[in-house]
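Second attempt. The first submission of Plasmid pRiA4b Orf3-like domain-containing protein had a stray character pasted in from the spreadsheet, which I only caught after the job came back as garbage. Lesson logged: always re-copy from the clean sequence file. Corrected sequence (181 aa) follows.
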Amino acid sequence: MRRQIFQLKVSLADVTPPVWRRVLVPGGYTLDRVHRLFQCVLGWQDCHLHSFDIDGSQYGEPDPEGELTLRDELDTRLDAVATKGGRFLYTYDFGDWWEHEVTVEDAFGADPEERYPLCSAGEGACPPEDVGGPFGYRQFLAALADPGHPEHESMRGWLGRSFDPSVFDPGRATTLARWLS
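This time the job returned cleanly.
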């Protein structure tokens, strides 16, 4: 029997220009590995808490202080919670609240000639960490785009590198995903 592969489309909610990725993920991945994969292909740096909301159940890293009621993502495989045509949410950074809509576009047997995981497509650069969620990201882009904007220089200095919201390289994302997940 061939391994089952899930084709997931991960879309960052409430941002323009659009940011999304299409990934092929082994069904045997636990949700903690799916989290690491999403971090890689989206461009996040895994500096904040996260959770999955799947069919009304919350999954993530158990909270030792018991403030968050989460099922342990280490104990849950993707193929146990994902179904073709299904949807779920992945939230990253509970302060900035980056919500990702995940669509299970397909499920099929693994191609023995292919290596997984694989980022097959995508669009848009990931927003910088700690930019302030979707609202802060809109302000950030407006400031960067206008040299006359009062925050232009401070935003450029804060980021410390160039930023093009349209740039995405699926080959680089796949390389990182295979290395880190």
